[in-house]
Amino acid sequence: MPRLTRLTPDTAVGASRDLLADLVFRHGQIGDMVSTMAHSPAVLGGYLQLSRAMGRAKLDRETSERISIAIQALQGCGLCLDAHVSAARATGVDEEEIERAHAQTSADPAIAAIITLALQVYREPTSITDAQVSALREHGYSDRAIADVVGIVALNILTGAFNLLAGLTPGSDTGA
């Protein structure tokens, strides 16, 4: 059961009201996470800015979604995991690769290496080595793509932790 209530442009105040009104105007509707994040304009605004920024990441969407699946399988946010599995399917990632991402790997050595990096950023960034970064470059990743991994992980930590705190789960309905 959700722990926090959804807000709407009518029930939110201040900056959150403006952010929600703009989202409703541009998209027609908003999801439970965004409407619940509106309790904190700082969190909602930060999420929206980081989400937009990561939309310009150098990593392709298929790889980004596999990283997100691996992170969310570890973090335990079912709502995020479902969303990233659906997005991976929509980009053409096959079911075997989705299952591998759940298991925090890939049949493609380059993608497995970037997933490993993402998991280290999540768990223990001090364990990342120069040799590991060099190996990522040998797989064809640019410095920009390698740096983008931190943003992808940060966005997943933010959304997953928020949903877990708020009690948002697949199929949960927080009402208006």
How helical, in percent, are the residues?
A: 55-70%
Average residue-wise pLDDT: 95
Number of strands: 0
Instruction: Indicate the radius of gyration in whole angstroms.
Output: 17 Å
Strand-residue proportion: under 5%
Biggest sheet features: none
Number of separate helices:
9
Q: What pattern of helices and strands is seen along the backbone?
A: HHHHHHHHH
Distance between the termini: 14 Å
Q: Uncertain runs with pLDDT below 50, 5 residues or more?
A: none
Shape: elongated
Q: Give the helix/strand class.
A: mainly alpha
Explain what you see.
By secondary structure, the chain is mainly alpha-helical. Helices cover 67% and strands 0% of the residues. The protein has helices spanning 14-27, 32-37, 41-54, 61-75, 78-90, 95-102, 109-123, 130-138, 143-166. Helix 4 (61-75) packs across helix 6 and helix 4 packs across helix 7 (109-123). 33% of the residues are buried.
Briefly characterize the structure:
Helices cover 67% and strands 0% of the residues. The chain has 176 residues and is an all-alpha fold.
